[in-house]
Design brief:
The chain is of the alpha/beta class. It contains nine helices and nine strands. The N and C termini lie far apart (103 Å).
């Protein structure tokens, strides 16, 4: 009936008016909110602290409002976290887009990089990721790299030649089932004057045979359940050299086996303290 059509139209008009009024009300509250009175510089710092706690917060911040999105896009420090974990294993093309955006928007800021190549099945993709990171290695202040085998670790060494000047934290991990090797090498190829924290999960000390005068904390983990004792031992002489070469404050070993030489200083009748 015509009367019902008119009533339906009136209801639709009233609902549209009600929705507009609700939007105006929300806008008034938004304009008067205390957070909207913060200076962009202060809000940017708040965002930085939030992103430091949760990397995924960045995408949510940029969707709140046009103002917040502008602040997010103009703050290089918010784009310094680059993480490849299991969540990106099936979205490698998307990760490449994300990687390039972060490298561009972070400008000259120091980078926090955590790359797990165990979730990258294609060797070509692994090489491409390291290639993209190559020009920015000098900006890495924290670098975590996890690999499934020594083939991937050699790939990291080949692509990480310029890593070191700004590096403060280093975490190397290789799957324990493939951590044995007779062809030992150092992943780092130049001195690391600022490197303070090192964690080696299964790789031997040979992977960090460079000058580390600022080293303060080191944690070494070997899984002797998967190896022959002769191949996973830490030479005691190398350990002592590392300890005396820097002002270590904390050193920890897990499942450690040491090898010693009877000619070492410690076995002399009057060893040097």
């Amino acid at each position: 009936p015509e009367e019902v059509i008119q009533l339906d139209q009136s209801i639709a008009n009233l609902e549209k008016t009600l929705e507009d009024l609700k939007l105006q009300r929300a806008k008034l509250f938004s304009e008067r909110a205390l957070v909207s009175r913060l200076l962009p510089e202060l809000l940017s710092r708040v965002f930085e602290l939030g992103v430091d706690e949760s990397f995924d917060l960045l995408s949510a911040l940029s969707l709140v409002s046009r103002t917040w999105r502008g602040i997010v896009l103009s703050a290089p420090s918010l784009w310094t976290y680059i993480v490849l974990d299991s969540e990106w294993a099936w979205r490698i093309p998307n990760f490449f887009r994300r990687l390039r955006i972060h490298l561009q928007r972070s400008q000259a800021s120091k980078l926090f990089v955590d790359i797990d190549l165990r979730h990258v099945d294609n060797t070509a993709d692994a090489e491409s990721i390291l290639f993209e990171l190559g020009p920015h290695l000098a900006r890495f202040y924290s670098f975590t790299i996890s690999v499934p085998d020594w083939t991937r670790m050699r790939l990291v060494r080949e692509r990480a030649a310029s890593l070191g000047p700004a590096l403060e934290n280093l975490y190397l991990k290789i799957d324990s089932s493939d951590s044995e090797t007779d062809d030992l090498f150092s992943v780092l190829s130049q001195p690391c004057p600022r490197l303070a924290n090192v964690v080696l999960e299964h790789p031997p000390l040979d992977c960090v045979k460079v000058s580390m005068p600022a080293l303060r904390h080191i944690y070494l983990l070997r899984d002797h359940c998967c190896h022959s004792t002769a191949r996973i031992t830490y030479p005691f002489r190398d350990i002592m050299t590392m300890i005396t070469a820097s002002s270590l404050e904390y050193i920890a070993f897990q499942s450690a086996v040491f090898s010693v030489d009877a000619n070492e200083e410690i076995f002399k009748s009057s060893p040097t303290p």
